[in-house]
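We examine the record.

___
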Amino acid sequence: MKRIFFFTILLIFSLLEIQAKETDTIPEKKRHPMAFSGYQGGMMFHLGYVQSKNFQFNDLSDKPLGNPYQLKGMAYGIGGAIRVGFGKHLRVGMEGYVSTHKYGPNASSAKIGWGGLLLDSHWKIDKVTIFVGGVIGGGSTHTQH
C-alpha cells in the first residue's frame, strides 16, 4: 500500500512538472550596446623579406669601418597582441613585435621592435573576420656589428 501511494505521488509530481510553464519573474535587462563582448589574443612567430639601401658604419672620428653593407634577406621574430571587445564591432588592446635580420660576414644583426595601443573594428562574415584598425605607439632599432 505504501508503494502504491508513493508511486502515485511521484507520478502526480512528474505530471505537474511536465505541465508547468517556464516563467521568469525577473524582468530581462537590456544589454548596453557597448558592453564587454570578450577578449582574444596570442603570440605569433613571423618572418618576411627585408631589403635596404647601402649603408656604412663609421667610428667616432667619422672614418669608415669596413665595407658598405646592405640588408637583404629573411627577417624573423616574435610578437603578440591582446584585444578586449566592446559591443559587436569594437576592439581595444595592445600589441608588440620584434624582428631580427642577420647580415654581413661578422654575424651582424639589425633588430626592430615596436608596440603600442591598438583600436580596430571587425565584422564576422561566415568563417572569415574582416578588420580595419590602427596602432599608436613607438619603436626602436638596434644594430650589432
The chain has a mean pLDDT of 84.
